[in-house]
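ok so i was messing around last nite and threw this chain in just to see what happens. nothing serious, just curious
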Amino acid sequence: MYKINSLKEKYYKSIFTLYSMKKRGQIWVETVIYTLIAFALIGLVLAFAKPKIEELRDESILEQSIEMMEDLDLTITEVIQAGAGNKRVIEVAIRKGDLRLDGNLDQFLFEFEGKYIYSEPGVDIQQGNLIVRTKEVGKLGFINITRDYSDYNITYHGKDNLKIISKAAAPYNLVISNSGKDSNDKTVIDIELK
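result:
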């Protein structure tokens, strides 16, 4: 009788041990499933939120770039009005895109590529002295902000060259100077990068 009870106890203990092991295994399986569900939900939120966040970031950068172009235009206008020999330094921060100082075409052009569509694609928008044009390619917007100085002679280091200033962590210092009149009686505006 003692052996039978002992065998029954061993049997019940082994069943209890198996049951508790299964219970612990079930807890781990549930933990893994809940973790996977949480990751899937986070992934879904990011899939919808990330493009909107990028679009808002690009919108902010574009607005700052338009403001930078307006400040640059204002500084050039002040240098022209102050007369020959006048010189000003302006700080230009480019977080995304390229600023093109084109001495051949006598214009400044800021090019920007991002998820934000500024205006109706293919239509020029006049914003003060600036012309903003959006071109849409797929989900991206290519935005050009142009300031034409065809009444003046824009030079870079005294030459009619194209200078491309790209994005950088630190702002650039542009020296803008009025070098007087050229042979065509146009005011020469010289740009230097410091």
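not much to say yet. The beta strands are 87-92, 98-102, 107-114, 124-127, 130-137, 140-148, 153-156, 162-166, 172-181, 187-193.
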